[in-house]
């Protein structure tokens, strides 16, 4: 008996009956990104592992627990990308994009990888969309980036989500806040999970992002970052809110948002769907004004966001939203007789190369079998060509919805069908 190969845990196949959903959300995201004048960037699926250790933070869960690391044949330490911002920043620096026109607004789509516990809406290979904006500290850019993400979700038809925003301050005002958190959480050291005990020593803000029930309860009464913002950070955050109001983007201020990566400064935000249970984040992001310089580039402010397609599609399915319909042929070509079939082969290619979608099954010979196949294909029309019709230079066109049939001249088939397609579009 031959060995059966199973898919790796935490991954999934996107089958033909569902792939159209993915293509739909890809298309909507690309269209909206273009409306905001963002251009696509495509980076490698794997990078040098120290890229993420430096950018994301070597003590983060992503780097310590979740990153897929491996050595190539020459012993170089590589990693499958766990997130999209670090590779984009690396490319921004490597390719001197700061000196190229129209290269400050970038978006990406693609698979990411984290060794995490698989569960509903969370996988070890997952597909992410994101944008990155480089070069400006103006709070308007923060609001514009947040609005892009919000309007993407609205354009898909989603209703059951909220936008939450916060400011985690700059490196200076964060020092006092970290000290306040250490003082607060030290009183509960015995009740914190082991991870949070370690976070208390290194990155106390990460305790606010812990999902353990007891840690969440303790964090409820922790000091607020907003009480420790310096004047500049407070003014910027107020301006971000003012811009969002002017853009008609509803939001809630949530002082507990910290994001799980080391590079964030000032504005942080999340889009949350409360119908998804524990894994309810549709996306999120924030400002990272020090990251480009930290990774060896010139001092360059930046801000971006990312989200996962899996939870996005799950949310749309939960709300019963339309994905635009699965792919189906415009025409199903039916032939009767050897001469008709031979003629149909050349006509079929000519019509397809003209931009029309056609299906043809050479294995099915009877009219009944081919008509059943045409029904199953959901084609809008059927072309029927027999040997007798071929001799008379005509072909039958059948409307598969109404059942109405008509004869058209065989040598005008392409022109007729192209006009028909134009009218039905």
How would you portray this structure in words?
The two termini are 51 Å apart. The protein contains 15 helices and 16 strands. 40% of the residues lie in helices and 20% in strands. The protein has an eight-stranded mixed beta sheet. The protein has 425 residues and is an alpha+beta fold. β3 and β4 form a beta hairpin. The longest helix has 20 residues, at 16-35.
Write the layout of secondary structure elements.
Elements: H1 16-35, E1 39-40, E2 46-48, H2 49-57, H3 61-66, E3 69-71, E4 77-80, H4 85-94, E5 105-113, E6 125-134, H5 139-155, E7 162-167, H6 171-186, H7 194-202, H8 213-219, H9 231-246, E8 252-253, E9 265-272, E10 281-287, H10 291-294, E11 302-308, H11 309-318, E12 331-336, H12 338-353, E13 358-359, H13 367-377, E14 381-386, H14 387-391, E15 394-399, E16 405-409, H15 413-424
Parallel strand pairs: 1-5, 7-8, 12-13, 12-14
Antiparallel strand pairs: 2-4, 3-4, 5-6, 6-11, 7-9, 9-10, 10-11, 14-15, 15-16
């Amino acid at each position: 008996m031959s060995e059966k190969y199973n898919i790796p845990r935490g991954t999934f196949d996107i089958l033909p009956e569902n792939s159209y959903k993915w293509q739909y959300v890809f298309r909507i995201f690309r269209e909206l990104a273009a409306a905001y004048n963002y251009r696509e960037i495509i980076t490698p699926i794997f990078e040098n592992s120290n890229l993420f250790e430096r950018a994301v933070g070597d003590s983060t869960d992503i780097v310590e627990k979740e990153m897929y690391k491996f050595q190539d044949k020459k012993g170089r330490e590589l990693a499958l990308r766990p997130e999209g911002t670090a590779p984009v920043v690396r490319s921004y620096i490597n390719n001197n994009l700061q000196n190229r026109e129209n290269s400050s607004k970038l978006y990406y789509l693609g698979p990411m990888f984290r060794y995490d516990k698989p569960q509903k809406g969370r996988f070890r290979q997952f597909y992410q969309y994101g944008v990155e904006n480089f070069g400006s500290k103006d709070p308007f850019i923060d609001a514009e980036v947040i609005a892009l993400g919000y309007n993407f979700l609205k354009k898909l038809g989603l209703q059951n989500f909220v936008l939450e925003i916060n400011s985690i301050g700059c490196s200076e005002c964060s020092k006092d806040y970290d000290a306040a958190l250490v003082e607060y959480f030290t009183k509960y050291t015995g009740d914190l999970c082991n991870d949070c005990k370690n976070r208390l020593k290194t990155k106390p803000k990460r305790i606010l992002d812990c999902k353990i029930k007891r840690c969440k309860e303790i964090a409820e009464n922790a000091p607020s970052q907003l009480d420790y913002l310096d004047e500049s950070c407070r003014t910027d955050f107020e301006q971000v809110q003012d811009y969002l109001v002017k853009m008609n983007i509803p939001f809630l201020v949530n002082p507990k948002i910290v994001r799980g990566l080391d590079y964030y400064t000032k504005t942080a935000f999340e889009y949350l769907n409360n119908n998804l249970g524990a894994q309810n984040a549709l996306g999120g992001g924030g400002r990272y004004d020090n990251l480009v310089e930290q990774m060896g580039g010139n001092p360059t402010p930046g801000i971006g966001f990312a989200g996962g397609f899996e939870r996005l599609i799950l949310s749309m399915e939960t709300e019963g939203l339309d994905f635009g319909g699965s792919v189906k042929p415009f025409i199903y070509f039916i032939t009767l007789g050897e001469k008709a079939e031979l003629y149909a082969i050349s006509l079929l290619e000519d019509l397809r190369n003209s931009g029309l979608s056609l299906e043809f099954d050479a294995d099915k010979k009877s009219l009944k079998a081919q008509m059943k196949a045409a029904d199953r294909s959901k084609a809008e029309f059927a072309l029927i060509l027999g040997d007798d019709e071929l001799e008379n230079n005509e072909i039958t066109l059948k409307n598969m919805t109404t059942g109405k049939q008509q004869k058209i001249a065989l040598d005008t088939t392409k022109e007729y069908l192209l006009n028909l397609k134009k009218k039905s579009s």
